[in-house]
Amino acid sequence: YENGKLKQTNKREVILDLDTIGHIKRDLEYFNSSVERSMFTSRGCCYNCIFCGASTFWGNKIRYHSPEYVIKEIEEIYNFSNTNFIRIEDLTFTINKNRLKEILAIWKQHYLYGKIKFAVKGRANLIDDEMAQILKELGVDTVFLGFESNNTNVLMYLKKCDASAKFNQEAYDILNKHDIFVYGSFIFGTPEDTTESLEDSLNFLNQNEFMYADV
Description:
The protein is of the alpha/beta class.
């Protein structure tokens, strides 16, 4: 505060080369074998969903760690915790298919390949058979999808672009076909919701089996 008023500073420039930040000093962390391990491979999201603060916090430009950096951090997490499961917390891990192919090519040559499973966050319109196959080969067994609604009008209100009930069902079906668990989130009670739109979402929940679903 200054003279009784909140003073807001200008935004700082983001770090474009994330690899310069360095890895977390996990040896300083209190070790607990029951704690799930997690990591980021990127920062930011190019989407601008009405309910999400990511674009305000990170900006709309996505910045990536290099594939080599990602593999090294996986190795460090394993060496620290001996875990066989890691959550990747990227806002939209599935945003760049070519990058995932680069990570996969290196990961397949690593001695830990096949020993660790991953959970990642995706977006329904980005899931196709090729993406699901890449995720499966990476070792991903769970994908978190923000379905939000299964009514296209509500989805367009919430997500503004590239969202539909058709995308939702196709993404679910493709991941299910590749034996990848789906964790879904939904938003009920938006200004655009009606009895019919809520029924669309409830029917979607009832017709599909989720590993977990948040409303």
